[in-house]
Amino acid sequence: MRNALRFSAILIGALGVLTWIAYSVLARTTRDWFEADVALRAQLVVGTARQSLLAHFHQSDSGALHAQLQDISRDQRIMAAAAWAEDGSTIAATDGYPARFSCANVVREIRRTPAKALAAGNGAWLKRTELPGGQVHVAAISLLDGSHALGRIVLIHDLSFALRREGKARNLLLVAFGVLALAASIVTMVAARLARRDWTAELRRILRGDEARPEYLPLLRDVRALVQRLSSEQEQEQRGGHWTPARLKATLSQHLRGERVVIVANREPYIHEHTAEGTVRVQQPASGLVTALEPVMRACSGVWVAHGSGSADRETADANGRIKVPPAEESYVVRRLWLSEAEEQGYYYGFSNEGLWPLCHLADARPTFRAEDFEHYRTVNRRFADAVCAEVDSDDPIVLVQDYHFALAPKMIRERLPRATIISFWHIPWPNSERFGICPWREELLDGMLGSSIIGFHTQLHCNNFFDAVDSYLEARIDRERNAVVQSGRATLVRPYPISTEWPVHWLDKLPSVEECRRGVLEALALPPDTLLGVGVDRLDYTKGIEERLLAVERLLERHPALRGRFVFVQLAAPSRTKIERYRELNEAVERTAARINARYADGPYEPVRLLCTHHEPPSVFRYYRAADVCYVSSLHDGMNLVAKEFVAARTDEQGVLVLSQFTGAARELTEALIVNPYDLDQASDALAAAVQMPKDEQRERMRSMRGLVAEYNVYRWAGRMLVDAAQLRRRERLTGRLARFGMRALGAQ
Ligand code: G6P
């Protein structure tokens, strides 16, 4: 309908211009005709009165001439008349004859007029001109006696009648234009409506397959499937409801037709380790990535390609490094890749964690870039890409490439499997383009990532930073409307997909109630029941702001003496990347700080800080979440931070307060937390004080709202949305490919 409106506007405009041109031509032509008529008329008048005029001239009877001219000018259109002798003197003129047309003036004009412009043969001079009262026509006609000219008769005609007629014609044309424009718009609208109805009916008929030609059928099948899927996806979105493992599974089989998902992530979800007792123990690593993706894989099945880093990993996997997990459930496969010590050092510790990790986090650590590390990074990326290609079961698989360990892999996979749908997710922040620019291999990293079909970040800000980096360092077009980077005609979509936890968290199934968990934790720590308990859960990483957190606890006790002896902060700190100097320094600094604060406020058995630097399995972590009055997440820079969301998920009692750093992605979603700047110790300690004193009703209100959000925006939704986007992209690409091939065939047939 909008097109029809646009079309009518153009039509009316064109009609307007045409009417205006027609009017101008018409006005000029009719004016010329009127003028010619008037000139003819003047000559006729003089011709008719010629004999008596000649007689009056011969007798030099000016009185009789005056009377005759008065008689002539009685004609409605003749304003004035005059008779001149050949010498230029006026013999007679009607009353009120205009002085402008005196003999002298007119003769001057006649002399200026080229001879051929004078009326042919009869010595008439004719001219249209203006008088103050309007337009007039002046005719000066020679009065001939045989071939001898006696003088001239001047007749001045009033032309206002011509202007009046012009005006009438213009009004008529305007009315005609109005009627035409109205008629054109009505006809256009009606035609558009009818055509649309016909077209829709035609399309419906074709989609039903009633009248399709056989060669169109495969194409129609695809169009029909696409239409149905798009509408069912829309319906599902509109129907809303929470995303569950079942819905994710159904989405996968509906949209990806059972094709399995292959994940590439450095960290494996289950690590087998030898224990001191000579047994093998399975560990779930402390990794936000694993926390998020493990439930997704349990729901979808498929293969997770990862570094086999556990001491008992080889002996628990088969000859191809494959093992079914989770233990006893076996719903998907982990494919372990074995790295040499040099590879692990260069690729994992070196380029990934001493280069990219500090590059992407604003947390007071300088990146170190070594060419040999990057060489290992490139080799290991290639090895993982090869492993992916060995695991897929079609030439257009769905591959999920995870995190900063694999910036180069998407392009390597794309080279081997051009039709693959590759979704890369960057779990950590993406820095601004100036900072990213300090990496010596910035172009190669960006280029590698753009092998992906979709690149996901937690926030729009990180997407924008990525676009800026591409803009600054690559020859590629940024399509801001589609949120895509286009390189050599291929588009990579860049979108925010904020990650989350599973909902409900399966670990809670086997956990005792909140009260029991609290009782158990306080007992284990030998703390009295009325303890105000704060909890922190992290890997020992300098981006987590653990030192700042302990300093905020110290400031709290300093400023609120009543809390001394009652407030205890338990920090669960999983050792991480301990081969890197900066991490070892952090470990020492945290221990030193905790010891100093404890020394300052210790009172008998009371110690305000409990530092538990060891790995805790998820059930143990969830007990602490449940036991806590307050959970403090103080990251200095964090892509999302799932500890915040896990704490909320754990609190089925709708109690407990979350104090959350504003520098986490989670702070954008969990706005009912007490949001703080972890560098501002006064503000952070005020928030901790407010948290431990917060009335239960307010706690409930805040927690209920955050739980609602985490329940809805859970990890199944995160994965579901990415997979649905990928499936849509893939269908569109397939359809476009088929349409292109079909078009080529049609052209070839012509
Ligand atoms: C972050 C990264 C993950 C990583 C995790 C643990 O969350 O985004 O990719 O797995 O830290 O680090 P680690 O080096 O032990 O795998």
Give a summary of the structure in a few sentences.
This protein has 750 residues and is of the alpha/beta class. It contains 23 helices and 23 strands.
Description:
- With 750 residues, the chain is of the alpha/beta class.
- The protein has 23 helices and 23 strands.
- Strands 10-11-9-6-12-13-14-17-16-15 form a 10-stranded mixed beta sheet, with helices on both faces. Strands 20-19-18-21-22-23 form a 6-stranded parallel beta sheet, sandwiched between helices.
- Helix 1 runs antiparallel to helix 5 (160-208) and helix 11 packs across helix 12 (409-416).
- The longest helix is centred in the N-terminal third of the chain and has 49 residues, at 160-208.
- The radius of gyration is 47 Å and the shape is elongated.
- The model has no long low-confidence stretch (mean pLDDT 88).
- The structure holds 6-O-phosphono-alpha-D-glucopyranose.
- The site of 6-O-phosphono-alpha-D-glucopyranose has 11 residues, from helix 8.
